[in-house]
Amino acid sequence: MVDTDGGSGSPAPRKRADARRNEKALLDAAAAAFVTSGVDVPVRDIAAKAGVGVGTIYRHFPTRADLIVAVYRHQVEACAEAAPVLLANSSTPHAALAQWISLFVDFVITKHGLAEALQSDDSAFETLHAYFLDHLLPACTQLLDAAARAGEIRPDMDAYQLLRGIGNLCIGADNNPHYDARRMVELVIAGLRIH
């Protein structure tokens, strides 16, 4: 390996930044492809959308299960990281909660094929539910607590119950044109308000 940093023996920081950007581009492209075509979308389509070769995807994610898990984790992290940002930038904690729940609904509704993939025998999927709870429950709790402290919502709302209820409202939303899950979720969030 060529030493590019003047002899310290550590790799050049640019390469690490490039690798992170490439991985993020792959994950974003895969997530978009999963939304439009499901988790069984051909890898070549994901590679084309990301602007990389198929080999690059397999270098980062040797199996489809590895890719699905990475996309899921990436999206869970993005949703969790949005909570404090929304709280800091919204007019009220309830407004931040409503915006965050909208992101959560997007996440839940766009998981075409993920539920079926998670039911497979692939051990790569075993820890995803815990990962989901470990990241999204604290984010939701932070928003609920802020809205309760501001006197905007009832103080007895539990994050797990809320996320579970919203998830249940979203079941089948992608295959029934007469059902508007987003509207149902909006009613729930509006119903949390203290009038």
TrEMBL record:
It holds the Pfam family TetR_C_43. InterPro entries: Homeodomain-like_sf, HTH-type_TetR-like_transc_reg, HTH_TetR, Tet_transcr_reg_TetR-rel_C_sf, TetR_SbtR-like_C. Residues 42-61 bind DNA. Keywords: DNA-binding, Transcription, Transcription regulation. SUPFAM superfamilies: Homeodomain-like, Tetracyclin repressor-like, C-terminal domain. The keyword Cytoplasm does not apply. The keyword DNA damage does not apply. GO terms for molecular function: DNA-binding transcription factor activity; transcription cis-regulatory region binding. It comes from the Bacteria. Residues 20-79 form the HTH tetR-type domain. Residues 1-20 are annotated as: Disordered. PANTHER family: HTH-TYPE TRANSCRIPTIONAL REGULATOR BETI, HTH-TYPE TRANSCRIPTIONAL REGULATOR RUTR. This is Transcriptional regulator, TetR family. It comes from Amycolatopsis marina.
